[in-house]
Each structure stands twice: as C-alpha cells, then as structure tokens.
Amino acid sequence: MPFCSTAARSPTWQNWVVKPIRAVFITHAHMDHIMGVPTLVRHHHASPHPLDLYGPAGIAERVGHLLAGFEWNLAEPTWFTLRVHEVLPDRILHFSFPGPERFRRHFAGEEERQSREIWSCPYLTVAAEILDHKLPVLVFRVDERPHFSIDAAKLEQRGLVAGA
Ligand SMILES: [Zn+2]
C-alpha cells in the first residue's frame, strides 16, 4: 500500500478484495498522507502478523503521536506489532509499536543503507529515494518480480495461450 490517506476508505475501494497488508509506504507526513494510520491499525490490530511501515525521517515520532491519541486499555496480548522504519540517506532506523504494550514506541536498532532497495517479498521489490517537497519526502519505485513460471510446452499441449 503506497499511501495511508482516507482515500483507502473511499466507496471506490470498498468493492476491492484486499489481501492481507504486509507493508505500507508513506512518502511524507502531510495530513493527507498519514491520517489513515489509525484506521489501518484499527483494521489490523487483531492480526497475528506484524505490519511494516516505511517513511521519511521523523515518521516514527508522528505515528507515535497519532497512536497516543487513543485509549488502549483493552489491548490484548495477541495484538500485532507495528514496525516503523525511517529511511534516511545513509541508514534505516527501526522502531516497534507492540499492540500488547498499547502501541508504545520502542527503538529497535538501525542498519546501514546498502542500496535504494528498502523492502522486498517474493513478488515485489520497493526502492526509495529522498526528494524535496519543502521537506524531505520519499519517492518509491515498485518492481514486480517475474513470479509466474509458465511452461510453454504444457500450455501448447493443452491448446492454451499465455496471457499478455
Ligand atoms: Zn505534501
């Protein structure tokens, strides 16, 4: 998911089949790009899987402020952990917001940035670059990996044609 605005709740999106979200990429913290984070947490909190959120410098503090605006006394030990990653020019800072701990922020280390790539899965890689939008913002490049292996001989045997 490349942004976290309220557009994700628009009627247009309500008919979509949404697969489990593994990572969210936020360009910057202007209101229209970050105000959907509490809604995202609300819809993901019962998941057993952590969720990774990538953003520019300072994003963890802002996410912390957003989540601190709610009461979490009903938090369950099974709630997910939001993992926030701040992408800096030379390194990535890691923070965690464990649901069972009412989404309080913890610094979870840092790593040197070896390349533009910041996230990958078997289907996609995501690279980030820092640009200026009167503040540092991230721009993302998403590349789809060739994850479908089509056996051309078997297709031909069955009289099928590969899709475009
Ligand atoms: Zn903006």
UniProtKB/TrEMBL annotation:
Superkingdom to which the source organism belongs: Bacteria
Gene3D superfamilies: Ribonuclease Z/Hydroxyacylglutathione hydrolase-like
InterPro entries per record: Metallo-B-lactamas, RibonucZ/Hydroxyglut_hydro
Molecular functions per Gene Ontology: 3'-tRNA processing endoribonuclease activity
Residues in Metallo-beta-lactamase domain copies: 17-89
A Pfam family: Lactamase_B_2
Protein name: Ribonuclease Z
Organism field: Pelobacter propionicus (strain DSM 2379 / NBRC 103807 / OttBd1)
